[in-house]
Specification:
alpha/beta; Rossmann fold; 2 domains; Arc Repressor Mutant, subunit A
């Protein structure tokens, strides 16, 4: 059976998920699992898990792009192992890769390594740029919103108002309320 998996990072990416589904159906997918959840964070990807669980020996999981499937090279290898353990294969449409072939397996590993390398280089450049901007006095980081509201937080606490209500009123997180209170108690 040919099984498809489509994912977008946010719910407002309707055109993206529809385009993926169209491509998957055109590729012959008989069943398509879809979800709208970020790959960057550690959000649970229930439909990916369901698709991997659904696979049987001889099946092929099809995705439109590699970044729709895996969040890192390590995650990619984990997903590929789970697919292989089922006796199934992976096909990535935009790359023309099919792990039913030795060449497809090789290309997937090479491209995954290149993608990881690219990401690491980008992050390194970003860190260097931030450091350079800090040295030039142009990068200050995000302003500490909660710390600026410490007096208000303490006043509201002294009036018996809880952290949840304070966070709602001041537009900050509960954790920020607790951090301010912890710092004022320690200092």
């Amino acid at each position: 059976m040919i099984v498809g998996y489509a994912r977008t990072s946010t719910f407002d990416q309707v055109a993206g998920i529809e385009a993926q589904e169209r491509d998957l159906l055109t590729a012959g997918c008989e069943k398509v699992f879809r979800e709208q959840v970020s790959s960057v964070d550690v959000a649970q990807r229930d439909q990916l898990s369901a698709a991997l669980e659904f696979l049987r020996e001889g099946d092929t999981l099809v995705v439109s792009k590699l970044d729709r499937l895996a969040r890192s090279v390590a995650h990619m290898h984990d997903v590929i192992k789970r697919i292989a353990d089922k006796g199934a294969a992976l096909k990535i449409l935009n790359l023309g890769i099919d792990t039913n072939t030795p060449t497809g397996k090789l290309m997937l590993n090479i491209l995954g390594g290149v993608a990881q390398f690219e990401r690491e280089i980008m992050l390194e450049r970003q860190r260097e740029g931030i450091q350079k901007a800090k040295l030039a006095g142009k990068y200050k980081g995000r302003s500490p919103t909660a710390r600026d509201k410490a007096v208000e937080i303490k006043a509201l606490i002294s009036n018996g108002i809880g952290a949840t209500e304070i966070s709602r009123r001041l537009g900050i997180s509960r954790a920020s309320v607790y951090n301010v209170l912890k710092k004022s108690a320690a200092g």
